[in-house]
Every structure is written in C-alpha cells, then in structure tokens.
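Researcher: Quick test of sequence recovery. Tokens follow.
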C-alpha cells in the first residue's frame, strides 16, 4: 500500500510532511518540517521541491520563489540571515541572470549575475552616494565603466579585476562639459531596462522524469536535513567584500594647481573646464595629463558618451541591414557543416591532391533545407570550403579540438566586431571566447594563401614554435544577388586574461609609420615610429625568439612575401615599489617628488628596477592546462634560472607558462623623447616590467608587379630604404634588424 491523496508522513528523525501524495511520492501542494526548525511550504513533484514555494531556514534566512529538483531555479527572493536581500533570477541554487542584491549596509547592485557573482553589465550604488555603471566579472569591476563619486565627480575608464587598469578620464564636480550630458537620465534608463528585463524573465518549467523505487521509502530527499537546500546558494559572506569595494577617493590628488598653455603662459586651473587624462597599471596611477576640456582629443570626448563601453556587438551589427544577419548565419552554418563532414574521416597524411583545385567542399543551403542541410533563417546561399583535409590536419597539428572550434565560432553568442588596424578595408570578427579572429580576404589574398599553403603546412609542421599566423580554415559565401565574401579563420594572438595595454604593428619601415596622437586610445594599434621602448629579455629567451624570427622570415622570403608585420602586445605590470602609492602624496610632498613633463605627471622617478614579475622553474602541474590558441609550443628555457624551462610568476595574479610569443617577460625601458622634456641635456628612462605577446601577421601580400610599380613611384618621392614596398630579401633583413634594435643584447 503506497500513500496516495492527502496525508501526513513522519520520519524516525522527526521530519514531518503534510500534503498531497501520488503513488507514494510527494506530489502537489504540501508542507515539510525538519527537526532543525527549517520549513518549506509549496509545490512538490516526484518527491522533490519543484514549482513555487517558500523556504524558511533554521538560521533565519527566507526564500520565496521558484524551485527545480530541490534547488532555487527561476525567479525568487531571498533574505539572508544578515538581512541582505537578493531579488532576481536563480539557476540551480545560485544567482544567474538579472537580479538585485541589497546589502544590509545600504549598498545596492542591479545587473547581471553568473555562478553567483556579479558578471556582465550592472550598476552598483554605495551608501555614500558613489555609483559604478559598467562591466563586471567574477564579482569585480572588469572592463569599461563610469564611476560617479558622491561629490559629483566622474571617472570614465577601464578596470581589471577590480582595479583601474589602462587609460581613463576624470572630471571634477561641476565640470561644464558634464552638464551637457544627461548622465542622470542615463542611470534611470538603465535601471528601468534592468527591472523590465527582470520582470519579464520567465521561470523555467517542465517536469523532469524521476525514476525512483518505492524501496527508497520516499525519504532519501529529506532525511538529510534542510541544509541541503542552501549548499549551492551564494553566501552573503562571499558578497560582503564586493559590497564595500568602492573607489577610495574621487580625484586622487593630482596636485596640479596650474597648467601651462600653448603659448607658455601659466593659467590657474579651472575645475569646470579641465579634464584629467590618466593611465593606471593594476590600480597605480602612472601618468596624468591635464587638458582643457575645449581642447580634448576626439577619443577622450567619446569616453564621455559612454557608448564606448566595450564593443561587444554581434556580427549582424557590422553590416547594416539584414545582410549582416544572413552573413553571420551563413558563416556559422557552413563551418558547422564542413567540420561535421570532415571530422569523421580517418586521420591520414595530406596528399598533393588535398591542395589541388578539386579539394573543395561545395554545398547549396536553401532556406527550407534538404536531406543534407538543415532548414535555417538565413536566405539561400552557396558555401565553399577550401582544402578541408589540409585545414583539418592543421587544426589537429595546433591541438585544436573540433567540438571546441565549432562551439567558439558557431555558438549562440555570435561574433564581435574588431576595428581594422590597417588600410586594407578588411572586416575583422572575434569569437565570443576571444580564441579566434575571422578576417575577410580579397580574392588576390586568397589566391596567395592557397598557393603558399603546401609550403606553409610543411613550415608549421617542422616548427612547433613558429610565430607565423595560425590558419584554421578558408571559406567563401555567395549570398543570393550578392557578391562573394571570402573568409580566413585565424588564432587570436592576444587571447589572454591579462589586459593588453599597448598594441603595435611593426614592419621595420619608417615612411608614414606613425599615429596621430589625438586619435590614440586603449584600442588603437600603434606603429613603428610610435614605439619608444627598448625591451631587455633573458638571454636564452631572446636567442630563442630571434632564431625563430629568422626561420619565419626566411620562409616568407622564399614565398616572395612582403608587408608582413610583427604584432606586439604589451601588458604592463605595476612596479611593486609604487603599489604603496595607491593613496597619492599630499600637495607639498608632490611638488618635490612628482615630475610634470608637457602636462604629464609621473608619480616618482621610475629609475628603480621594479619587481612585478619573476621567472621560476617550470612546473607542469602549477600552470593552467585549459585549451586555448597557445597550447602548441615548447616551454622555453631561461638563462637566469640555470638554463631550465621557465614559468612566469606574477605576484597577485598567477603563474603562466612561458612560450615563444606568449607570456614572455621583459623589462621595457621608455626613453622620453627630447620634445617631452624641459631640458634637452637630460635623458630620462622609465622602467617597467612587461609581459609580451607577439606574432607575425599579414603574410598574404606577394611582391608582384603592382608592388614593384609602387616601389618605383614612392622611391621618387621618399627614401627608397624607408618605404614598405621593397623586394623580399631586403624587407626580411630590414625587419630583423629593426627588431634586433628593439630587443638589444644584454651586456
């Protein structure tokens, strides 16, 4: 005889259930009491808390909302034992989605959550009136954002793991330019959007299939006490530190009481017209330029609009209109089809026929679908995949899993647009996990790629540590009544958790290789003449680097390739002896210790070699083994640790595997140019520890007749040794020589 209908059941440990039963299982409405004094009243299904109900914990917590299989899941409100309140979305017992968390101290966060922590876009308001509106990750400010201090001052900038990191602009309260912006209206609109999303979020429904025998005595879910229902929830203690993490001070005492105008006269600073363009490294203020608001650069003014918050637009925003949406869907459908078709084929060595004209996968994708293609929401299109077996073997060679590849590019999160760093007019897309870059190609570039592919395959197979771009696939889409669009999928050299503070595209030439200073911001890719650093590396690391650069340049020279670049990314580490300066000195002290050069303030002289990173002996079990674009490649040996394989230890951050072009430590000596100093007789050097990311890109330009004509024409106007269009052997030698000057040999 099994319980069925309404009834009361008492376990030996004192747990009591009163409510509905169906064939021996608690199903329907009911209430359960645990010996710990915890209770639940609401919906049950198959012996589980499932539906809507109210849970009161023995320690004083209270939850009212949706449940799924004994876990908070859907929309719900919880009051914790310390009176903190979370009202929003849950997933399997933790905050997930949109929600509002109010601390008992009076601080409030409204925004998105992931795995129980603030992640994504959100607004935090502190009791003292401070407000941060921007991006979060793992409970910390991370990405672009706007910070409004209680006194009315504003800071627009970027954060990394809770610390200001990178360039930003500070405006004191009462600034004239701020009054032109409806920043208050912006916050109200944002709150309304979040509340609207929260109220419209539908709770998940659907009864799971639960197979349990009567011999389990309907008791296994409840005789373990009520504590099991809070194991997955976010503890208020975990969030208490986040709730108090506001910026310490509003203006950080820049100590500049006057500025020098362009004609040399000194003017008293008017806070209503000044902007403070600052640069931080892991929370340390490194530089500051005080500028008149009316003379701000275009990029700085853009920060005020807060539309620059981190471009996470989908591919459909790149092309205007419906064509963008169709192109994205077509690209994802085609890659999914090709990878799915080629992956089951047994692995084998590539043959000469795999590089030939017939080595193509072609497929027509009608909207309604066929026996071979799924129905889709794009328009009819033709798909062509070039040399599928070759690229399949290349992906295996680069230790790239086919499923990971498809999920990165073809997942629901779509693609993001990148601004083109060059003049090619190509469009660049970034996969949602930052692992892959997709670039549109000209027809001529695709021809060069296919022509050099057999030699490229041999080169990357022979050299695990090659710095040349990793290619993962080449494709073509022909939309109905549209032109043909060609793509190549490449590895992202800057796929790292560390913030890239500077990006350089270096060719070794000088003609036109500079960037307008007024157009520079944190996303700008700088050029050869913008580089004012020399990089000093461990002796063995440098030897390994230039050995591979010579091999790669020799390969490109053999293929008659020019116009390639070294893409260099710099992650600066805040000097350890400056981290104590998170609280700036007072005004009188600042006059003696701070230097202002052309409006730029450096806090103290950076002449003491910093200790912000350390080379240590490689330990495979101590570094991350997560899949990524840098899996292939040997661990490098370092002279400074006795010719042993090295890891890079970053205090307060982690331990990274040192590979060629990845996580490479160096000391950057920044020589202030003569124009930047008050005295031409004094040479000042700023010394930073940096982590380098680098690789050779843009390898699809042949030295053809067009380039020969360009060389002849430009040689009439400019120095023929300084232009980019030169014959391959000279280009290669000049490229290596330039890099050798950039990475001088240690004495």
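Model:
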């Amino acid at each position: 005889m099994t319980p069925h209908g309404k009834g009361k059941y008492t376990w030996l440990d004192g747990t009591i259930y009163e409510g509905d039963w169906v064939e021996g299982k608690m199903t329907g409405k009911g209430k359960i009491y645990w010996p710990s004094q915890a209770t639940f009243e609401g919906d049950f299904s198959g012996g589980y808390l499932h539906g809507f109900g109210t849970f009161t914990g023995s320690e004083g917590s209270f939850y009212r909302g949706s449940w799924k299989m004994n876990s908070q899941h859907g929309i719900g409100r919880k009051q914790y034992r310390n009176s903190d309140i979370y009202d929003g979305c849950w997933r399997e017992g933790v905050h997930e989605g949109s929600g509002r968390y109010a601390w008992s101290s009076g601080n409030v966060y409204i925004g998105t959550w992931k795995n129980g922590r603030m992640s994504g876009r959100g607004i935090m308001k502190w009791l003292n009136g401070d407000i941060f509106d921007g991006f979060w990750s793992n409970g910390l400010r991370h990405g672009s954002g706007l910070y409004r201090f209680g006194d009315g001052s504003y800071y627009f900038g970027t954060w990394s793991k809770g610390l200001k990191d990178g360039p930003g602009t500070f405006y004191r309260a009462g600034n004239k330019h701020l009054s032109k912006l409806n920043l208050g209206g912006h916050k109200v609109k944002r709150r309304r959007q979040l509340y609207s999303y929260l109220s419209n979020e539908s709770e998940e429904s659907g009864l799971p299939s639960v197979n349990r025998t009567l011999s389990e005595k309907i008791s296994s879910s409840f005789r373990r006490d009520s504590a099991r229902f809070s194991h997955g929830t976010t503890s208020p203690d975990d969030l208490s530190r986040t709730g108090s993490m506001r910026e310490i001070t509003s203006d950080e005492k820049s100590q500049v009481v006057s500025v020098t105008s362009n004609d040399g006269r000194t003017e008293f600073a008017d806070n209503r017209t000044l902007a403070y363009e600052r640069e931080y490294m892991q929370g340390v203020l490194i530089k500051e330029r005080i500028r008149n608001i009316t003379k701000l650069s275009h990029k700085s003014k853009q920060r005020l609009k807060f539309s620059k918050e981190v471009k996470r637009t989908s591919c459909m925003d790149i092309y205007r209109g419906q064509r963008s949406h169709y192109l994205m869907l077509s690209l994802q459908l085609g890659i999914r089809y090709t990878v799915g078709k080629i992956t089951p084929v047994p692995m084998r060595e590539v043959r000469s026929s795999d590089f030939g004209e017939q080595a193509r996968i072609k497929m027509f994708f009608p909207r309604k679908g066929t026996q071979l293609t799924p129905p889709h929401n794009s328009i009819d299109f033709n798909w062509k995949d070039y040399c599928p077996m070759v690229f399949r073997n290349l992906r295996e060679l680069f230790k790239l899993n086919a499923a990971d590849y498809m999920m990165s590019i073809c997942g629901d999160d779509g693609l993001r647009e990148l601004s083109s760093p060059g003049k090619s007019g190509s469009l660049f897309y970034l996969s949602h996990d930052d692992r892959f870059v997709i670039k549109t190609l000209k027809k001529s570039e695709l021809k060069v790629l296919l022509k050099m592919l057999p030699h490229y395959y041999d080169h990357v197979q022979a050299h695990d540590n090659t710095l040349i771009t990793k290619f993962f696939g080449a494709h073509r889409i022909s939309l109905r009544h549209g032109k043909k669009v060609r793509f190549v999928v490449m590895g992202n050299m800057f796929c790292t958790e560390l913030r890239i503070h500077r990006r350089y595209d270096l060719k070794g030439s000088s003609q036109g290789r500079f960037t307008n200073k007024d157009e520079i911001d944190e996303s700008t890719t700088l050029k050869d003449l913008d580089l004012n650093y020399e990089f000093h590396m461990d002796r063995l690391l440098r030897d390994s680097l230039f050995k591979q650069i010579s091999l790669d340049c020799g390969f490109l020279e053999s293929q008659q390739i020019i116009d390639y670049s070294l893409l260099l990314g710099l992650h600066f580490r805040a000097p350890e002896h400056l981290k104590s300066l998170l609280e700036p000195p007072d005004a009188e002290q600042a006059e003696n210790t701070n230097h202002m050069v052309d409006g730029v303030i450096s806090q103290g002289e950076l002449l003491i070699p910093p200790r912000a990173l350390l080379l240590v002996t490689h330990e495979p079990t101590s570094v991350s083994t997560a899949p990524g674009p840098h899996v292939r490649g040997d661990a490098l040996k370092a002279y400074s640790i006795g010719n042993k394989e090295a890891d890079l230890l970053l205090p307060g951050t982690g331990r990274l595997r040192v590979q060629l072009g990845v996580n490479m430590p160096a000391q950057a000596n920044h020589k202030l140019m003569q124009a930047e100093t008050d005295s031409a007789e004094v040479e000042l050097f700023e010394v930073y520890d940096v982590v380098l990311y680098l690789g050779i890109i843009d390898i699809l330009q042949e030295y053809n007749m067009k380039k020969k004509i360009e060389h002849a024409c430009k040689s009439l106007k400019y120095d023929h040794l300084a232009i980019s269009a030169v014959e391959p052997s000279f280009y290669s030698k000049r490229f290596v020589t330039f890099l050798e000057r950039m990475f001088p040999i240690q004495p």
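The mean pLDDT is 79.
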